[in-house]
């Protein structure tokens, strides 16, 4: 049955999460479809940042140990709040660093090559920063990245066949690092299955959760994931450049972090200022430097909503919205050369839709002129992310109808088909 406006209005009326839309600062007269790159500001996140500023204003240095949210314990507090989102125990998650610095820390800890195992497996569609970090650790250990980094090939240029991942797990592999969701196509991997098989082959497994945490529930502890890392500024709405997070399974708490720093110390011993590193007995050990308090503060307010709702409800709405949007694209845009490249099965789809078109860069510029905010990925991918917390079914419908109008009128032709400095 074709999707019509009556159906769209019905889904919006019945949406139990619709009240949370009112908590966000929505862009005026715009449809925001880029929450998989940068989430919108919520009033709670704004308030938690302002409260932290107020603490500095009124307490000075005493803000570290006093007030409603003492800064000295903020990373642990946020880790505890984040843990339910990824299926972790509270002590297994810490908010610290950035995606890439956290990966460097985890590589320095978990990549321990020996005479038999020297190689790291990743994939050729991974986000470049992850690959740079892997190349860096290999070089530091004296190995040539072109020989010891195994990048799994894509059969179609958009997705990775899980059987190819499994086939790459040979006896010379020390470490497997994959994204939970491929950033370009939105493919979701079977984290539990891949982790289990890799462990059976004696391989340590780490996951990049940047494009899944906050929109897909995980069970990192139960799935026996060794480590994971992610940013908080996409689906978790912590603000541009917000502090990242990492997960280390409790079975590894006996390890000493590869990169030691004073904020990884046992908090009771930290200010003894000894030159012997006494690490924290949990994931807090993986902190390096002093926390960036004001970059962490918005996450304090942002996470409240996730813990109120629960990841399962967010996932149900996200899956339904992306399903409806894919149906609308096929229904309204089938004659304009668009191709949906994200998996259509619920079990394999992340939180965004990826569509292929040779004029993608120009089309994205035309969408922005219509005050629809998409995301472009070189050379020809348009990403659209209907976010469960603040997007409506009407947003999804209107985006497709505006896209149809752009194509019918060839409005995209007045733009150059190349990305801006920031895509």
TrEMBL record:
EC supergroup of this enzyme:
hydrolase
Entry keyword set? Hydrolase, Pyridine nucleotide biosynthesis, Pyridoxal phosphate
UniProt entry tagged with the keyword Hydrolase:
yes
The protein's annotated pathway: Amino-acid degradation; L-kynurenine degradation; L-alanine and anthranilate from L-kynurenine: step 1/1; Cofactor biosynthesis; NAD(+) biosynthesis; quinolinate from L-kynurenine: step 2/3
* Gene Ontology MF terms: kynureninase activity
What EC number is given for this enzyme?
3.7.1.3
Q: Which Gene3D superfamilies would you find in this protein's record?
A: Aspartate Aminotransferase, domain 1, Type I PLP-dependent aspartate aminotransferase-like (Major domain)
Catalytic activity, reaction form = 3-hydroxy-L-kynurenine + H2O = 3-hydroxyanthranilate + L-alanine + H(+); L-kynurenine + H2O = anthranilate + L-alanine + H(+)
Under Pfam families, the record lists: DegT_DnrJ_EryC1 (PF01041), KYNU_C (PF22580)
Q: Which residues carry this modification: N6-(pyridoxal phosphate)lysine?
A: 234
- Is Hydrolase set as a keyword in this record? yes
In which domain of life is the source organism classified?
Bacteria
Similarity section? Belongs to the DegT/DnrJ/EryC1 family. Belongs to the kynureninase family.
Which function does this protein serve? Catalyzes the cleavage of L-kynurenine (L-Kyn) and L-3-hydroxykynurenine (L-3OHKyn) into anthranilic acid (AA) and 3-hydroxyanthranilic acid (3-OHAA), respectively.
Assembly, in brief, is: Homodimer.
This chain belongs to the protein called Kynureninase
């Amino acid at each position: 049955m074709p999707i019509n406006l009556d159906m769209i209005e019905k889904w919006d009326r019945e949406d139990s999460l619709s009240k949370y839309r009112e908590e966000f600062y929505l862009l005026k007269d715009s449809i925001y479809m880029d929450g998989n790159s940068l989430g919108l500001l919520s009033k709670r996140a704004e308030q938690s940042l302002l409260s932290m500023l107020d603490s500095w204003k009124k307490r000075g240095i005493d803000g570290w140990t006093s007030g409603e949210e003492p800064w000295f314990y903020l990373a642990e507090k946020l880790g505890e709040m984040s843990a339910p989102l990824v299926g972790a125990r509270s002590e297994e998650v810490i908010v610290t660093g950035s995606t890439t610095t956290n990966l460097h820390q985890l590589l320095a800890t978990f990549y321990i090559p020996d005479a038999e195992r020297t190689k790291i497996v990743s994939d050729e569609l991974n986000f470049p920063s992850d690959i740079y970090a892997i190349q860096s650790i290999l070089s530091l250990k004296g190995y040539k990245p072109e020989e010891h980094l195994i990048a799994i090939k894509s059969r179609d240029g958009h997705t990775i066949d899980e059987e190819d991942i499994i086939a790459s797990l040979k006896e010379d592999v020390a470490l497997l690092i994959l994204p939970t969701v491929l950033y370009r196509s939105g493919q979701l991997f079977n984290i539990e299955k891949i982790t289990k098989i890799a462990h059976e082959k004696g391989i340590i497994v780490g996951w990049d959760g940047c494009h899944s945490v906050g929109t897909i529930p995980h069970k990192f502890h139960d799935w026996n994931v060794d480590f994971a890392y992610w940013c908080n500024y996409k689906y978790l709405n912590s603000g541009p450049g917000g502090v990242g997070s990492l997960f280390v399974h409790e079975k590894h708490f006996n390890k000493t972090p590869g990169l030691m720093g004073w904020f990884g110390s046992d908090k009771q011993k930290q200010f003894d200022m000894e030159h012997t590193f006494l690490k924290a007995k949990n994931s807090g050990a993986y902190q390096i430097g002093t926390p960036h308090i004001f970059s962490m503060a918005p996450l304090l307010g942002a996470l409240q909503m996730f813990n109120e709702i629960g990841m399962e409800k967010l996932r149900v709405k996200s899956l339904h919205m992306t399903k409806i949007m894919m149906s609308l694209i096929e229904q309204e845009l089938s004659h304009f050369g668009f191709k949906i490249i994200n998996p259509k099965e619920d079990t394999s789809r992340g939180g965004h839709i990826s569509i292929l078109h040779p004029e993608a860069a120009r089309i994205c510029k035309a969408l922005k002129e219509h005050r629809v905010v998409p995301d472009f990925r070189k050379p020809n991918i348009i990403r659209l992310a209907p976010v469960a917390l603040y997007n409506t079914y009407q947003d999804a419908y209107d985006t497709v109808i505006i896209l149809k109008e752009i194509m019918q009128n060839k409005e995209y032709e007045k733009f150059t088909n190349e990305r801006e400095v920031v895509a």
